[in-house]
Design goal:
Layout lengths: L2 H18 L9 E6 L4 E4 L15 E3 L5 E3 L8 H10 L5 E4 L3 H9 L8 H4 L14 H5 L2 H12 L10 E4 L3 E6 L2 H24 L8 H9 L21
Antiparallel strand pairs: 1-2, 1-5, 2-3, 3-4, 5-7, 6-7
Length: 240
């Protein structure tokens, strides 16, 4: 099986996983992955219902967005994915959903604060939200500029340690080394967003998790000193 054929299967499984976990309705959301050696991207086709997806429906493009394989148009969010792939060479996959609680935070224009260790296990600090896009950005290359808004917001941050962002008024994007890991992060992000929403509703002045505790929980799972789980080199992109 070729590398692209394997990537097609992985992307199909990740897209289906989003529906299985209740993160998408109708045809909302998409998952993609990139083969860095060839510069080819596999992504869900635009507007095709998830229950009609198969490997042959997926679209393969190059990094300029030109279709290489597939009978359909790629997701309209493709330029956002491409912007992230171009900006972050270590990113191997991108997942976008309109999952309920993460999207609520995005619509409120609020970052998701790190209030507990569940959050800290996967995200190093708050989950950022982008600035509002200008009218010119929206009217011109909207989807590409959406990606650029994420890239700007990640300036000074490690995208491997903060592997998600909320696009203001839109919804969440997650990324990882593999598309399966990115889909897992989308599930975790939604759970963290739900927990944070209910925490803030119950205790509006709930403090952020102390830095020593949040760092301990993140670093015991990620980075060279990680010791959680059975594998070597724990981190996003590997099962833990």
């Amino acid at each position: 099986m070729s590398a692209i054929a394997r990537l097609r299967l992985e992307v199909l499984e990740a897209n289906i996983a989003l529906t299985r976990h209740g993160l998408v309705v109708q045809a909302f959301g998409n998952a993609s992955a990139i083969a860095r050696d060839s510069g080819l991207v596999v992504i869900k086709p635009s507007g095709v219902p998830y229950d009609e997806l198969d490997v042959n429906a997926l679209v393969v493009t190059d990094l300029a967005g030109r279709v290489v394989e597939g009978p359909f148009r790629p997701s309209s969010d493709l330029p956002t994915h491409l912007a992230l792939y171009q900006a972050f060479p270590a990113v191997g996959a991108v997942v976008h959903t309109h999952s309920r609680f993460a999207t609520i935070w995005a619509q409120a224009g609020r970052e998701i604060p790190c209030l507990g260790t569940t959050h800290a296990d996967y995200f190093r600090g708050t989950i950022p939200v982008t600035d509002a896009m200008t009218d010119d950005e929206i009217r011109s290359a909207y989807e590409w500029n959406t990606g650029q808004a994420i890239v700007r917001r990640l300036a000074g941050l490690d995208p491997a340690a903060v592997p998600a962002a909320l696009v203001r008024g839109h919804g969440p994007f997650c990324w990882a080394r593999s598309v399966g890991a990115a889909a897992d992060l989308a599930v975790i992000l939604e759970e963290v967003a739900c927990m944070a929403w209910h925490t803030v509703a119950l205790a509006p002045d709930a403090p952020a998790l102390p830095r020593a505790l949040s760092e301990k929980h993140f670093l015991r799972k990620h980075g060279p000193g990680a010791y959680y789980g059975q594998g070597q080199g724990q981190g996003h992109g590997q099962k833990q």
